[in-house]
């Protein structure tokens, strides 16, 4: 077993949750799981009789480092509801109630002939009146976006049990409440409403049921597809407790301070596991990693009817790109912009009908519609057109290494290392040079403004020091952009997906899942063993010691993370040297929400500064400016934790602003990325790229980090995933021709 520590996903940190009827049974299980995921939980119980059980739930939570509060309140009464809400708001650090789980229920059986008004009102007051008026009471305390309301109903709502006239009616009513509230509260409060309908679950309430009712359950239990048994609390809890929030990313506000995780992300997969091993216990393919390379490979192979298992260490898809929804506004945390110059991303957008669902980053017409150019001595306001002219002049002097703006040295950017127009030896000469080497060659031709603009852009793009940044990588992106810097902004920083990168990733994932993809999230891989020379399979061992088997493996782990996986047989000396070297991009991307809309049209550069480039990137739902900013190799902002003082200072150096919110992810300390988008040192491409792309026995490698074309971009990941899937599919077709359908 691999010695890799695993922790429960802390994806509800900073959230406050009320779970009614949580002293025992399903409610207790939900309360414990919400707390395990980082939420502060209100454990609600109704009487002194159930206090001891509630205290046991509290002890369970607090002894494991969780936060919880006991509140005795009868939700069948308005007074009890008011008390529960008041105590919950006092307990909440944010003074918000993020999650309400309506679990409390009165479920005694009674035949129609024996129903009394007292019995009727006891059930309806708890099962319907309680949820209605508790939900009404918490509406003023919901967060402005991302609140969660869950009703625990029952299969009794849809089945005929003679002794459950009132109970079945109330549970059917819960379904109706869910439908009504989903429509009413979604747009107005940004909240989701869901309903869970458990079947027979082994709780005290279930075993206290009428004997005739228990007997009527036996055929239902026997016919349960998953297993012919009574359900357990653990079967139900994940359906309620898992929220579509990720453990990744930080937010800061004046009111809430710095918080990690707990942010809404469409890319979070729930439940995190769905797999049933093949009959012979051997998958056709295991895909490691659910970034764009892994998603594309898994989707293509699953669509060919191969048995595919995806393993991912995170709680979400997307790898080094994901979208967060905060108070109705979307933040792109990693790879963001798309272009028609990128063939693979364009193909995916067309495939899913998203090619026209784009939005532009830059919007003119707001108050500060200008560019600030900041040096160590002064800050100067210029027009956007003047700034573009300065940068283009500087870039053209820097990049024109062959007198033809790289058309001679890199005419075919998808065949960089030698083609019919240029020899490999000629490429190797340029690949040895660093950005510092080239800057020193042309710095005498630059004005002070051109030098400031060029240095800030080079450092931001590469995420490393100039001396360790490959000049060839700059030549490559020049060629990919049509050998024309006029296309730079359109390709790099203009067009975004209206629905977010996580939405596209989810469409690819859903495509694969609909075609039988098995998957496990929050499941890091520790060892890959190719036993094909003995047993014809590859073994993949995950952190908890489980081992999965496949005929082929596609590993999409980033370059800087490959060192954390053990390979047997050992990787080649050359590949291991490339892994030990790694890439040098440790850039920073930080979002700020600045008071007022004035900065939505602003753009600026500052050098030297921890943040080198910033620009208006839309207006939030609060009417404030959304600013996106990038820094180069700026470990000072995360040392090792976010340094809020330096972050605020860096933004003010770009332009004065009243920051209301910060949103960011520390990609450099993230164990599954250990850096930003890939940028190589001089000589790395001609020495290592072909080796990184090569297979290792029956293990294939696919990553944007060694793509042929748009390396370090989403398009490069898609390219590599598609390429690996095609290669593996061809081999599987010869191994198992009767099941592989291409």
Write up this protein:
This protein has 21 helices and 30 strands. By secondary structure, it is α/β, with parallel strands linked by helices. It has three domains: 16-243, 3-Layer(aba) Sandwich (Rossmann fold), CATH 3.40.50; 267-321 and 499-581 and 677-735, 3-Layer(bba) Sandwich (FAD/NAD(P)-binding domain), CATH 3.50.50.60; 362-493 and 588-666, Polyamine Oxidase, Chain A, domain 2 (Alpha-Beta Complex). A nine-stranded mixed sheet has the order 9-8-29-25-28-27-26-17-18, with helices on both faces. Strands 11, 12, 13, 20, 21, 22, 23, 24 and 30 form a nine-stranded mixed sheet that branches. It has a six-stranded parallel sheet with strand order 3-2-1-4-5-6, with helices on both faces. α1 (25-36) crosses α8 and α4 runs parallel beside α5 (165-189). The two termini are 37 Å apart. The model is unreliable at 1-10 and 737-742 (pLDDT under 50).
């Amino acid at each position: 077993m691999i010695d890799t520590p695993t922790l429960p996903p802390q994806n509800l940190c900073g959230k406050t949750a009320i779970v009614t009827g949580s002293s025992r049974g399903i409610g207790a299980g939900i309360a414990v799981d919400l707390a395990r995921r980082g939420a502060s939980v209100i454990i609600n119980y109704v009487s002194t009789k159930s206090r001891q059980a509630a205290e046991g739930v509290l002890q369970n939570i607090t002894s494991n480092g969780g936060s919880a509060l006991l509140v005795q309140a009868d939700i069948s009464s308005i007074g009890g509801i008011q008390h529960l809400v008041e105590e919950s708001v006092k307990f909440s650090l944010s003074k918000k109630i993020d999650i309400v789980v309506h679990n409390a229920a009165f479920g005694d059986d009674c035949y129609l002939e024996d129903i009394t008004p007292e019995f009727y009102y006891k059930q309806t007051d708890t099962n319907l009146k309680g949820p209605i008026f508790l939900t009404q009471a918490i509406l003023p305390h919901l967060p402005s976006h991302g609140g969660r309301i869950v009703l625990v109903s029952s299969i009794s709502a849809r089945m005929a049990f003679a002794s459950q006239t009132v109970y079945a009616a109330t549970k059917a009513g819960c379904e109706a409440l869910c439908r009504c509230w989903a429509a009413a509260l979604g747009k107005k409060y940004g909240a989701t409403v869901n309903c869970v309908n458990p079947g027979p679950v082994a709780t005290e309430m279930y075993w206290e049921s009428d004997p005739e009712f228990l007997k009527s359950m036996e055929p239902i239990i026997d016919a349960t597809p998953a297993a012919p048994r009574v359900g357990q609390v653990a079967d139900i809890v994940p359906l309620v407790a898992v929220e579509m929030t990720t453990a990744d990313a930080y937010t800061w506000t004046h009111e809430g301070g710095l918080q990690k995780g707990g942010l809404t992300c469409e890319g979070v997969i729930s439940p995190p596991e769905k797999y049933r091993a093949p009959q012979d216990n051997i998958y056709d393919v295991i895909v490691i990693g659910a970034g764009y390379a892994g998603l594309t490979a898994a989707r293509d192979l699953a669509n060919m009817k191969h048995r595919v298992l995806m393993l991912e260490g995170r709680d979400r898809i997307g790898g080094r790109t994901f979208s967060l929804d905060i108070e109705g506004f979307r933040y792109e945390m990693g790879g963001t912009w798309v272009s028609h110059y990128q063939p693979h991303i364009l193909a995916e957008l067309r495939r899913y009908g998203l090619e026209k669902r784009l939005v532009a980053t830059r919007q003119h017409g707001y108050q500060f519609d200008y560019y600030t150019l900041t040096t160590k001595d002064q800050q100067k306001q210029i027009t956007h057109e003047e700034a573009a002219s300065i940068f283009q002049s500087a870039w053209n002097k820097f990049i024109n290494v062959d007198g033809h703006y790289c058309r001679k040295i890199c005419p075919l950017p998808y065949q960089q290392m030698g083609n019919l127009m240029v020899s490999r030896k000629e490429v190797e000469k340029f690949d040895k040079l660093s950005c510092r080497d080239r800057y020193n060659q042309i710095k005498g031709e630059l004005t002070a403004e051109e030098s400031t603009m060029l240095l800030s852009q080079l450092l931001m793009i590469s995420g490393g020091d100039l001396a360790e940044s490959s000049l060839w990588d700059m030549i490559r992106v020049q060629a990919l952009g049509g050998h024309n810097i006029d296309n730079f902004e359109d390709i790099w920083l203009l067009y975004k997906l209206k629905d977010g990168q996580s939405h596209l990733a989810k469409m690819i994932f859903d495509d694969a899942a609909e075609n039988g993809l098995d998957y496990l999230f929050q499941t890091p891989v520790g060892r890959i063993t190719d036993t094909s020379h003995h047993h014809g399979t590859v073994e993949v061992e995950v952190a908890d010691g489980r081992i999965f088997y496949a005929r082929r493996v596609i590993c999409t782990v980033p370059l800087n993370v490959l060192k954390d996986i053990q390979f047997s047989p050992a990787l080649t000396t050359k590949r291991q040297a490339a892994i030990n070297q790694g890439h040098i991009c440790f850039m920073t991307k930080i979002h700020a929400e600045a008071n007022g809309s004035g900065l939505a049209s602003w753009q600026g550069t500052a050098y030297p500064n921890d943040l080198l480039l910033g620009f208006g990137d839309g207006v939030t739902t609060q009417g404030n400016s959304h600013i996106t900013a990038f820094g180069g190799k700026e470990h000072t902002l995360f040392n090792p934790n976010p340094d809020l003082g330096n972050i605020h200072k860096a933004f003010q150096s770009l332009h004065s602003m009243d920051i209301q919110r910060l949103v960011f992810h520390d990609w450099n300390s993230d164990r599954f990325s250990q850096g930003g988008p890939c940028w190589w040192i001089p000589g790395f491409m001609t020495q290592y790229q072909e080796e990184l792309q090569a297979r290792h026995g029956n293990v294939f490698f696919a990553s944007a980090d060694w793509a042929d074309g748009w390396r370090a971009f989403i398009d490069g990941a898609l390219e590599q995933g598609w390429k690996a899937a095609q290669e593996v599919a061809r081999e599987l077709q010869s191994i198992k021709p009767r099941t592989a359908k291409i």
